[in-house]
Amino acid sequence: MKPRVQLLDFDAARLHLLEQASSPATSNHPTQTLNLLEALDRVLAAPVVSPINVPGFDNSAMDGYALNVSDFARLPESFEVVQRIAAGHTGSSIEADTAARIFTGAPIPQGCNAVVPQEHTTVDGTEVKLTQAIEHSQNIRRCGEDIRAKSEILPAGVKLGPQHLAMIASIGVATVSVYAPLKVGVFMTGDELTELGQALEPGGIYNSNRYAIVSLLTKLGCVVNDYGIVRDSAEATREAFIKAASENDVVMTCGGVSVGEEDHVKGAVQALGKLDLWQISMKPGKPLAYGKVGQADFIGLPGNPVSAFITFLLMARPFLSKRMGLKDFDLKYLEGISGFDWPRPDGRREFLRVARKVDASDQTVLELYPNQGSGVMSSLAWAEGLADVAAGTKIQEGDALRYLALSDLLS
Ligand SMILES: Nc1nc2c(c(=O)[nH]1)N[C@H]1C(S)=C(S)[C@@H](COP(=O)(O)OP(=O)(O)OC[C@H]3O[C@@H](n4cnc5c(N)ncnc54)[C@H](O)[C@@H]3O)O[C@H]1N2
Ligand code: MOO
Hints:
- 20% of the residues lie in helices and 29% in strands.
- With 411 residues, it is an alpha/beta fold.
- It catalyses: adenylyl-molybdopterin + molybdate = Mo-molybdopterin + AMP + H(+).
- Belongs to the MoeA family.
């Protein structure tokens, strides 16, 4: 009998994988200069420094009256309105105990030390009376209170979302330096795989993982080169690797990493490069493999559809994110409570497909999908999270349970 293979600890394998992920700054990955709207979802390659203050001048936060109050302890009966300042226009200095009609965003005139919203006033001709107490500096947005000139507003490694683009636009910067996307060559292995549009032969299945992996990579911001289906032969697998490794930063395969004699992926990697990791204590996803083929990183996902998806999210995604230069690449756990019993745990760490409910005391209760099989994609389509159950650990309803939100993993 062959000795039982020692599986690699999930965290140790994950950390090892992350250590192998060279950041684009150290690997001289090319950068691009893009206009802001083209840079959505791209990774900043250099910090953004503001040339200006934002706001660029003290301005009103309200439609109302800009006051020059000489003594906040002894307010005059009323203030005379001596000028009108709209946004985009500048006023002139206002004298003690006079006011300017002012609008949101308009520059605060010299002498003004408080703005009252118009709802807190009564107006009689050119006189404005206050109906509520006021404080020094109220409703004045100060120059530079959002962004200081010469300050770094975003570090390298930020994935540019709409909020970042707006912030960069507010300092008048029209272009940013981002990393060129990572090129990932993908192929699926298996004689049973059938492309959509073709009739299924006996024993055939549709190549559904292609749609998972290509879209997961695209969503992450990678350029995907899809090499299609590679038949179960050592030669075809080697040829596919040689081509994909010469044309991409990373080669990702799916299937053919288990122990059967039709599993040619590992052998091809060992022949052409180096197999660094294989067989991890996780369920689903045990046969996940990592290595190098030429200059390219190799990630071998298992063929079972749920295993491929989950190993992508938990292992490949953090690796690729770090490789893409993202500073925020690791898993983010949330706390919940089990809504189920798990009396027969596996010897591997398990990632269970769960949905979230909020109970009467506002706690997140995790409900289990009944079929946790590695081929059951309905479990993932239904799920909102992956509950993390330590190897060999029984769970009882009501126990604390950490989980990863799919909305985060798929963002
Ligand atoms: N004797 C053993 N058998 C298996 C072991 C083991 O340790 N000993 N491990 C099992 C585990 S765990 C997994 S996960 C799978 C993974 O195997 P492979 O990565 O080699 O994948 P395949 O054998 O090629 O396929 C597995 C399964 O997935 C289907 N598949 C494959 N590619 C696709 C695709 N592109 N789209 C949809 N479905 C796909 C394939 O038809 C198989 O049903 O191995 C276990 N076996
Ligand atoms: O690890 Mo496999 O993913 O159990 O089916």
